[in-house]
Amino acid sequence: MEGGGRPSATQAVLLAASTAVTALLYSVYRQKARVARGLEGARKVRLDGELRAVLLEAPGRCVPYAVIEGVVQSVKETLSSQFVESCKGVVQRLTLQEHKMVWNRTTHLWNDYEKIIHQRTNTTPFDLVPADGGAGVTVRVVKPLEAAELSLETVYEKFHPSVQSFTDVIGHYISGERPKGIQETEQMLKVGSALTGVGELVLDNATIKLQPPKQGMPYYLSSLDFESLLQKQESSVRFWKILTVVSGFATCAVLFFLLRKQYRHHRERQHLRQMQEEFRQAQERLMNTEGGEMLKNACVVCLSSTKSCVFLECGHVCSCHECYQALPKPKKCPICRQGITRVVPLYNS
């Protein structure tokens, strides 16, 4: 604590940072909890012949947040994998990712670093159809790339290591960056994959569409079934809740430490003021009782008892016997700070 009982700049910054982190974690937890509650309250509909009737009865021919499960089926043409034969899909993502080692000047260690240097995503219109192959009802999936979770299967992955000469190696060590290579990846949403869609279900003329919801809730196109998807979100909520509680306890501990320090400082100042007041009252009492003569013969340490010791070899008479006994070792004269070899009692007649 600084003078006046105020916290130091470091302590104030620590408390502010801890409070800010706790507030941020609580905000994320609230958002995750809201998403989990919304997902738990989503209306589950079956992809069958009664789906159209359900939408006709719904207000505005729309279910704001619905869960539907089906199998992916292309509307027109399909996308073919560039690397795997007979692999067809409706969403294709090609990624080139750079891998390298970067020297950390703080920890003095080489750290892995990954960077996407190119990514392209191709899509084609697709529907969700019943898993049992029943005909007559389909759901058109709209804007799949806006989904918060879009489950794509990795169908091809290859790492191309970088070829380096001796001169390149020396240059990389000097620059602090060592290239490892390029990773090439292809991911696809295959035709025939089981998919769980969570979003706004709307009947648009004769077409049933699944699209991003308008209430700010997330849009899901997941390969997990609904129960597994819900458990995944609830696990995320528990994780952020634990982080928030731990951070909150840390903030409370810092605050308690600062308040305790301030309280101790306040007690010390209060004790000091009390001692000063007692000293002032003792001075006034001595002045009033003996007319100043008592103060002249009073011990210079306690100002309450009379001088009763002669310190040798300096010869000063300045202390009572009790205060002499209380002097720290090695004992020195309070007046001249010379070492006291022996003490002779003083008898006043």
Automatic annotation (TrEMBL):
Residues 299-337 form the RING-type domain. It comes from the Eukaryota. SUPFAM superfamilies: RING/U-box. GO terms for molecular function: ligase activity; ubiquitin protein ligase activity; zinc ion binding. It catalyses: S-ubiquitinyl-[E2 ubiquitin-conjugating enzyme]-L-cysteine + [acceptor protein]-L-lysine = [E2 ubiquitin-conjugating enzyme]-L-cysteine + N(6)-ubiquitinyl-[acceptor protein]-L-lysine. Its EC number is 2.3.2.27. Its main location: mitochondrion. It is an enzyme of class 2 (transferase). GO terms for cellular component: mitochondrial outer membrane. It is found in: Mitochondrion outer membrane. Keywords: Coiled coil, Ligase, Membrane, Metal-binding, Mitochondrion, Mitochondrion outer membrane, Transferase, Transmembrane, Transmembrane helix, Ubl conjugation pathway, Zinc, Zinc-finger. Residues 265-292 form a coiled coil. One of its GO terms (biological process) is protein ubiquitination. It is a multi-pass membrane protein. Pathway: Protein modification; protein ubiquitination. This is RING-type E3 ubiquitin transferase. It comes from Sylvia atricapilla (blackcap).
